[in-house]
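Long-time lurker. I teach an intro course on protein structure, and each term I like to show students one example going from raw sequence to a predicted 3D structure in token notation. This year I'd like something fresh instead of my usual example. Would anyone be willing to generate the tokens for the chain below so I can use it in lecture? Attribution to the forum is fine with me.
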Amino acid sequence: MPKNLLRVFYFFFYVTTSTHVRAQARIADSLTVEKAISFFRLSNPIFSPDGKRIAFLVTEPTKADKPASTHVWLLDLRDSIARQYTNSAKSENSPKWSPKGKQLAFLSNRNGENQVFLLDDEGGEALPLTCSKTGISAFEWSPDGKTIAYTEKDTVSADEKKRADDKYDEKVANNDKSSVLFSINVATKTSRRLLSNNWRINNFKWLPSGNALILETEELPDKEIPEHQLVRYELSDSSYTFLPSLKNPFWGDIQVAPQGKWIAYIGPRVDGPVAHDLYMQPVKGGKVNNVSGSKIDLPIREAKFFSDDEIFAIVQHGFYPRLYEISTKGEATDLKINQNVLAYDIRNDRSVVFVSSNSTHLMELWIATNGHDAVQLTHFNKSFEKIPLVSPELVSYKSFDGTTIESLFFKPVTTNNIALLPMVVIIHGGPTGAFTDSYQSWAQLFLQKGYAVMMPNIRGSTGYGWKFLESNRRAWGEGDFKDIMSGIDYLIAHKNIDSSKLAIVGWSYGGYMSEWAITQTNRFKAAMSGAGLFNLASEFGTENGAAYDHWFLGRPYENMDVFANHSAISFVRQARTPTLIIQGENDDVDPIGQSQELYRALRYYKVTCELVTYPREHHGFIEFKHNVDYITRMLDWIKKYCPW
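-- Reply from a regular --
Happy to contribute to a lecture. Here you go:
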């Protein structure tokens, strides 16, 4: 797994339900697999400096003949009308207002490689500012708005280009090009090379003085357990100074306070495996302090300074992401927006624009002002409003050792008067992932076919504190699996679930849990594993970066028993459950070999199984027809082998 990326479940799940048969008929008529995955995603809302406009990104649904594209939209609060601001054949991202709000800069690959484009606030044609041969990675306006700093990969030499042109296109492992830091004068379009070192620059911010930048760097060539380092770079003499930093690869998203007193970022409680707590340290040097760990002990997301003493951040409470204000001493105050906040920005008067969704409403843009309820600003997913949606029930139960586990439980609309319901258990990726109160497409489609759905946040999930998160370290397939089975038993006892009609599905770590489940019990009548992990030792040796797995399991070269004892391959001879295996051929997070090993093993033991691979797909599927096909296959597989 590359660096600090989690095995997350890349797809948004969507759920609908209702209270009577007529509503169910409307769902069946209107919600096909194609419709269920065809929705708009909103992100990156930012106020203009005068607070009168909001720029944000809208990702259009993928279509059979057109890949998904992302464009900048602009909403003027004076007339509350949203207008598409960019409209290229490709995509745009990272919109950023100039300090005075006269221009909007963004990245676009419309001409090939990513370049910085500028668009005047009065509209017109967006014009490229940069002409990078390797593509711009990131950019930031200087505080005075006269220059933009940006990073790109170093260019190939003439000899390297000649070799590639001659078909000497071999790839040397861990031979990535270093980042180069540039600045460009916005008026004259003259660029200046600032810094080129043996680093990858993952992120950077200007200091308010405009005389220096704070860089988040990573030394090249890549180490098996990378270390990120904070660097202060002085523009006056091109010197740089290393600042105190966390010694692990799992922190980032640096922010600088408005007056330049503090640097803030999100990092793990200890040495991994995922960013969780808010850290702060003085810009002038000094101790790194964990601000939120002892007082909040919940995952912090998207922290932004409001002043040198106040930070806003999304805090994940189990299934619900909420917006908090956090002081430099760690005192946290819920802003009482009482909606899920997925992305946001703050105006000078403390008004908040945010993207929100839940189980019954898809993503839209909202605004909350002091003393007033939040107001919905957009209706991109209005077509889904015609589909009756019902929120899941949040259930809480005790696992085998007394640990409290939460789960979403969905009950199908129509039960055809059967006394006991069949149920599909969906497991999220990670393990440091989590289900949230969001629109769930897999669940919706299973509900439509008459299945109840269980979606638990088992131990190892985020949103329940650090101890809960790390509780399955060196223990994959132990307590987390028992959490699943305890939840099933609870629902059988309290929600009229048929114990003889159970199925399990999941992607990534959820795929691992599906594979583990079929080797530990025969209670499931059908299973689907998407991009799963079957042999943890070979996974460790072939994935793109193993630092995440290393934190959880150690090294197979000296702890092979740990890897063997927690791998489904060691117990596959016990499997009997018909299993569908879904895999992207270009997946380097959980490589195709994992699914191939599972398929071969199941065939040797004469277990009904099917392996379906998809060309060009990575860990999260992109192509419309591939998504439609694998979801349809999953639904049909469960219906065939776990009928009711």
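Some talking points for your students: Residues 385-641 form a domain with the Rossmann fold fold (CATH 3.40.50.1820). Residues 174 and 636 are 42 Å apart (CA to CA).
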